[in-house]
Amino acid sequence: MNKKIKSLSSKIVFLIAAVTLVSILLIFYVFEKINKEAFYNVEMEKAQLVLSTIEPLIAVNIYLNLNDRIDQLTKQLIANPNILAVKVLQDNTLINEQKSEEFETNIDDSFIVEHAIFQPNSKKEIGSLVLTYSNKNYKELINRYTTLLIKLLFLFAIFFLVFSLYVKKLLSPLRQIARLLKSYSPDKNINIPFDHQNNEIGFISNALNNMQHSIVQYSKQQQDINKYLEEKVDEKTQELQKQLYTNALTGLPNRRSLLRDINNYNDGALLVVNIDDFKEINDFFGQAVGDRVLISFSKKLSNIITKKSNITLIHISGDEFALFFAKKPSKDQFVEFTTTLLEKVEKMIFYHENNELTLRVTIGGAYQIQEALEKADIALKSAKKQGKDFLLYDETLNVEQQYKNNMEWTKKINLAIENDKISAFFQPIFDNKTNKLVSAECLIRLIDDDSNIITPYHFLTIAKKSKLYSKLTKIMIQKSCQYFEHLDCDFSINLSVEDILDIEITEYISHNIKKYNVSKKIIFELLETEGIENYEEVSSFINEMKSLGCRIAIDDFGSGYSNFEYLLQLNIDYIKIDGSLIKNLDTDRNAQIIVETIVSFAKKLDILVIAEYVHNEAIYAKVKELNIDRSQGFFLAEPKNAITL
């Protein structure tokens, strides 16, 4: 037994020595190779850093044709002792070259680094930079590192030799523990010595001596853990319960909480408060400011009702709040409270930086607990349509008439689809320099039983509600592509975000483009006020259409949230300036400034600009003066069911 244990100790020591030797050799080889490559990469990165730093300046000067400035920059580079030579090439033609005094003597101890030059704000390659970089630092680092590594490995070998002898001494107590364990049985406790040692052997001895005690302690800990987990589960359940009935932004009860309260009470009243045009605050100042306004508004509302304990303030969603009266007041008191609430809201002032923000609200009320939220919502919508601050629900709101009107229009749209009465009309777009027709916008029209031409203003919203919108989109796509199949003229079709997000519609578009071979003629107009929230889907659609050869226009640009960064990220061919900026362009100086900015921005990105709503000669003249590329409007041509080239 003793001989075997001794032999094992000797084998471990021998193995440590052998592994140490192999490790030293491997470490030397690997570190030598890795660090040579690392030092080389460091020098390369330094060279690349120099190139990437100077490339934008060179690119700008090439773009601006400032050759003297390029010469100054290359001479500055040569001042760096590590740079032996610099070449600047434009379209594979050498336009500048500088060499240091050490170039000829150190040419063999150098490496070449090349970097592409891109046109500013573009991925277009216009040239390249070639750098001859000295590797003198690299060789010095390698020599210094190799010497240091040999010394370290020598010390490392001595350390492991001493360590192996020390390990052999440390292993001796294990032989005694092994002999004691040989006589171990489950019904007999053994006392392992060495538990006084403050090392692993002492820890092993203590662990073996206290095994039974540890098992008991472990069982107790498991019970404590189970109890702790149960408490945490209860806490999390309560937290989730609170989140379920609380608005995350304001901390007020949410819509789900309101519905629960309505179901739990037999009587009560409800006010739904909607902030008018709140989207404008988000558009102008950003959503973070909008959120702060909502939080401040909720606090001010809370202060108004704080003394009325029977009223609960609810944040339904976004810009909509509710006041639930658990104890119904008299009708006069209910109306009086609402009137006072409107007056107090009008006096509220919210601050953002140096801006004072005021809010207006529209309120819908329900004086019955049954279906209170639905009734208050109907009253709110009716108040908005009628331009009133407050309406209390009653049966005279004529909701049935609205439904009846919607049903009639739905029927008209269905019949028009069945009888092929959905037509495509075309409004020409003219080049402002040549005055020639260059494209046409395809516009949907419905022809009724009396042959009246109905514009989409009357039926498109109802078509969306009645789920007929996708059918109308398909009809316009098919008829427009078919009409222009054999015409030498570009044409554009309006698409909404709903169209782009509908896979069936996008597949139908691709099918018709290929069927009628109009990929080089068709332009898709996307609304500027839509799609930012769905950037990835919109971008994917644009890339797909571009791969087919189609072009993209942003419609109604300037009507709302004119996000220039959004245009930079998307591959846009045209910008159509909204009619609200064009209609008074000849007299409105602010509109002129905005349009000039849009045109300047578009020109730098090689995007064509189209003016919509050109309705008289003065506007047309101003559009041309501002260097807008194309024009569209009733002054030039009205939409018709055919165009003349």
Distinctive features:
645 residues, alpha/beta, Beta-Lactamase, Alpha-Beta Plaits, TIM Barrel, 3 domains, eight-stranded mixed barrel, five-stranded mixed beta sheet, 22 helices, 54% helix, disordered N terminus
Describe this protein's structure.
This protein is of the alpha/beta class. The chain has 3 domains: 139 residues, 2-Layer Sandwich (Beta-Lactamase); 143 residues, Reverse transcriptase/Diguanylate cyclase domain (Alpha-Beta Plaits); 228 residues, TIM Barrel. 54% of the residues lie in helices and 19% in strands. An 8-stranded mixed beta barrel has the order 12-13-15-16-17-18-19-20, surrounded by 5 helices. Strands 6-7-5-10-11 form a 5-stranded mixed beta sheet, sandwiched between helices. Strands 2-1-4-3 form a 4-stranded antiparallel beta sheet. Strand 1 and strand 2 form a beta hairpin. Helix 9 packs across helix 10. It is flat, with a radius of gyration of 40 Å.
